TrEMBL record, chain A:
<feature type="site" description="Contributes to redox potential value">
    <location>
        <position position="35"/>
    </location>
</feature>
<feature type="active site" description="Nucleophile">
    <location>
        <position position="36"/>
    </location>
</feature>
<keyword id="KW-0813">Transport</keyword>
<dbReference type="InterPro" id="IPR017937">
    <property type="entry name" value="Thioredoxin_CS"/>
</dbReference>
<dbReference type="InterPro" id="IPR036249">
    <property type="entry name" value="Thioredoxin-like_sf"/>
</dbReference>
<comment type="similarity">
    <text>Belongs to the thioredoxin family.</text>
</comment>
<keyword id="KW-1015">Disulfide bond</keyword>
<feature type="site" description="Contributes to redox potential value">
    <location>
        <position position="34"/>
    </location>
</feature>
<protein>
    <recommendedName>
        <fullName>Thioredoxin</fullName>
    </recommendedName>
</protein>
<feature type="active site" description="Nucleophile">
    <location>
        <position position="33"/>
    </location>
</feature>
<feature type="disulfide bond" description="Redox-active">
    <location>
        <begin position="33"/>
        <end position="36"/>
    </location>
</feature>
<dbReference type="GO" id="GO:0005829">
    <property type="term" value="C:cytosol"/>
</dbReference>
<feature type="site" description="Deprotonates C-terminal active site Cys">
    <location>
        <position position="27"/>
    </location>
</feature>
<dbReference type="Pfam" id="PF00085">
    <property type="entry name" value="Thioredoxin"/>
</dbReference>
<keyword id="KW-0676">Redox-active center</keyword>
<dbReference type="GO" id="GO:0045454">
    <property type="term" value="P:cell redox homeostasis"/>
</dbReference>
<keyword id="KW-0249">Electron transport</keyword>
Length: 107, 309
């Protein structure tokens, strides 16, 4: 069963993402961002498919400015794939589901 | 009669595609709509829509898309997330190659829309997502109390620059002419906005910075002088290009690459229609896209009556 998409904050970003044993896909989003709302269901679908081997998380950049600042995010949605605390790949803006699948298949 | 997968295939899920789908589903056609990313098209990145009738207070782009999608779902339109790779239109029964299979159909409505055009200046690609953007509603709030630049003079450039003034302390609007092309009401608002400084007769020639955008170079076309301006962001709205990478040469295009249609929205190929931003048209609005699409669906329905006889 899918674990869904975990909401993470600045306070647990280190523990949940950078220290995670599994690779993590983080969706940086905000409520005012239309394209973020559009891509959210796609990320949820992917969590259903890839949930066993990848952790899915989302970070609201309005409430948690530190983490997006650290990764130089100036455009959302930005999806970053982390593995072992390192950035493996990054996608900016709305992209096709197939492109995200391609990225997730890298880990 | 040969076995054909669909009566009608709609390519694209923006306002034109969804409207064509609405009419086709209500006409009980065997129809499918392919959307390569998510429904909504360019409306998803539109902050506020106030020229689409029926919403006197205005409506946000994403909310309008949600309503349009809910409406087609009510009539059980089949929407699939898939990309059209190519089309074979040489026979009356058309073949469409998708990312995972080939399907056949009698009729096609192309509503694949358009994407923002790039300027092609140095730094534009390097700093994409690091200050360079084409979406104010996505990225505007990252530039709170910053100075930003915007390039363009049409509706999108002016409306989105106005949106940027909610966050930025100053917006330089760079336009290559000495007057705007945008709707008069948008022009009035922009000219009255103290946060917007117009750089008329000017073009962006470069974007520089270390890791993020730090400054831009702007050339005045009348004097030939170039100056650098410190900005944290640079938004580019200089028109659009049609999304037609899948289209065979058979379909006639205008000089800018948009599809030429007749009054019935039919292209140069019988049974193939185009609607919305992808077609050659003097005006590209949500209101014109949905009108095109209603005609295209109606025309397709009549075409199908004839071919199936």
């Amino acid at each position: 069963m899918a674990e869904g998409v975990l909401e993470i904050e600045d306070s647990n970003f280190e523990a949940e993402v950078l220290q995670s044993e599994k690779p993590v896909l983080v969706d940086f989003w905000a409520p005012w961002c239309g394209p973020c709302r559009a891509i959210a269901p796609v990320v949820e679908e992917l969590a259903g498919t890839f949930g066993d081997k990848i952790k899915f998380a989302k970070c609201n950049v309005d409430d948690n400015p530190v983490s997006p600042g650290k990764f130089g995010i100036k455009s959302i949605p930005t999806l970053i794939l982390f593995d072992g605390g390192e950035i493996i790949d990054k996608v900016i803006g709305i992209v096709a589901k197939s492109k995200l699948e391609e990225m997730l298949n890298k880990v | 009669m040969k076995n054909v997968d669909y009566d009608l295939v709609i390519v694209g899920g923006g306002p034109a595609g969804l409207t064509a789908g609405l009419y086709a589903a209500r006409a009980r056609l065997n129809v499918i709509l392919f959307e390569k990313i998510v429904p909504g098209g360019q409306v998803v990145t539109t902050d506020w829509v106030e020229n689409y009738p029926g919403f006197p207070e205005g409506i946000s782009g994403p909310d309008l898309v949600q309503k349009m999608t809910a409406q087609v779902q009510k009539f059980d339109l089949n929407i699939e997330t898939n990309a059209v790779v190519s089309m074979d239109l040489s026979e009356p029964i058309k073949k469409i190659t998708l990312s995972d299979r080939v399907i056949t159909t009698h009729a096609i409505i192309i509503a694949s829309g358009a994407s923002p055009k790039k300027l092609g200046v140095p730094g534009e690609d390097t700093f994409y997502g690091k200050g360079v953007s084409a979406c104010a509603t996505c990225d505007g709030p990252f530039f709170k109390d910053s100075v930003v630049a915007a390039v363009g003079g049409g509706d999108t450039a002016v409306q989105e620059s106005l949106f940027l003034t909610k966050f930025a302390k100053k917006v330089y609007l760079i336009h290559r002419r000495d007057q705007l092309r945008a709707e008069a009401i948008l022009q009035e608002r922009a000219l009255a906005n103290e946060k917007i400084e117009f750089l008329w007769d000017s073009v962006l020639t470069g974007i520089q910075g270390l890791t993020d955008v730090e400054k831009i170079s702007v050339q005045n076309l009348k004097t030939g002088d170039t100056k650098d301006i410190a900005v944290a962001g640079c938004f580019i709205w200089v028109g659009i290009l049609p999304n037609l990478e899948f289209l065979p040469e058979l379909v006639e295009l205008d000089q800018y690459g948009f599809i030429i249609v007749d009054a019935n929205m039919q292209t140069s190929v019988a049974g193939v229609y185009a609607a919305g931003d992808v077609r050659s048209t003097p005006l590209r609005q949500i209101a014109t896209a949905v009108g095109d699409a209603a005609i295209a669906a109606f025309s397709a329905e009549h075409y199908l009556e004839n071919v199936k006889e």
